[in-house]
Specification:
The chain has 155 residues and is α+β, with helices and mostly antiparallel strands. It is built from 3 helices and 7 strands. Strands 1-7-6-5-4-3-2 form a 7-stranded antiparallel beta sheet. The termini are far apart.
Amino acid sequence: MKWDCSIDINAPIEIVWDLFDERHPKRIMPKVDSNEWIVQNEPLTGSSYKQTYREGKRTETYLVTITEFKDEPEEKTKSIQFVLANLFETNLTFEMQKLADSRTQFRYVGSNEGINLMAKTMLKLGKKQENGGPVVAEFMDRVKQEAEKDAKGSE
């Protein structure tokens, strides 16, 4: 499954970018309980952290690696990779482009690929959803809402 979605956000690029700081994942990913740095490089490319994710009563912990990191005034990118439940390799990219002082374009690109026969079968049996389906749409909306709320609070 792959997706590539963009949305314009009425908030400065730095406010949107701050939502992707590993210190407070719950703001935009409520099912993530915690992030714990294992290796923190400067810049962050090649860094890794342990992420704990909760789905109902089930808790999953996995290693997240930052594969790309760019923090420029007009453009910001963070790409991460992890293996979920020893079934799926997930690659996510979060890109921000400054459109104006108080407007940012946010682009979310991702993929989930099965790493074994069971996972590949699960993905094939799952519904083919346009651009990642409702989970991706909810994430995009949450990022927009949180960034615009922070922007209004900083005025």
